[in-house]
Amino acid sequence: MDRSDGGFSLPLNSESKELKRQEIARSRLLVKVRREEARLTRKRERLAAQFEMAKKFDESFHEGELLKSNYPLLKRGMKEVRLPDWKEGESERLITLRPDKRPVELVAAKFKEARKRERAIPHLEEQLRKVDGEMAELQM
Predict the structure, then answer these.
(1) For residue range 71-96, what is the model confidence (pLDDT) as tens digits?
(2) Whole-angstrom Cα distance, residue 64 to residue 62?
(3) Chain segment 32-48, per-residue pLDDT in tens
(4) Could you write out the DSSP letters of every residue in 48-110?
């Protein structure tokens, strides 16, 4: 067979066809593996961020205690409140509030947030271990 560049091409035998097919399958598989690695990396980053937030459950609990101890200062419609923080010495802590909530709901929400974060820690640790294991399998 004559090619336009002056060389000759040989007809593909069954062995070279099989090699070509295997190379195409290999490249498709590599694309899938890279996509899965990227997906797992994004998932791990998201879980790690959630885990870091969950570890701050004691801060939410402390903010709930600050709100509870300064309950008479809280009014509906407040967007934020600056309260003396006995944990940090003489400093003040700025706490962002939801203006649509009543003061009692604000205090309850802070404690609920703290409990939710604390309960999430074991689950997030397990999810991180699972994702790490899946990533290690892909690296093999």
Answers:
(1) 999 999 999 999 988 887 778 999 99
(2) 5
(3) 999 999 999 999 999 99
(4) HHHHHHHTTHHHHHHHHHHHHHTGGG--TT-SEEEEE-STTTT-EEEEE--TTS-HHHHHHHH
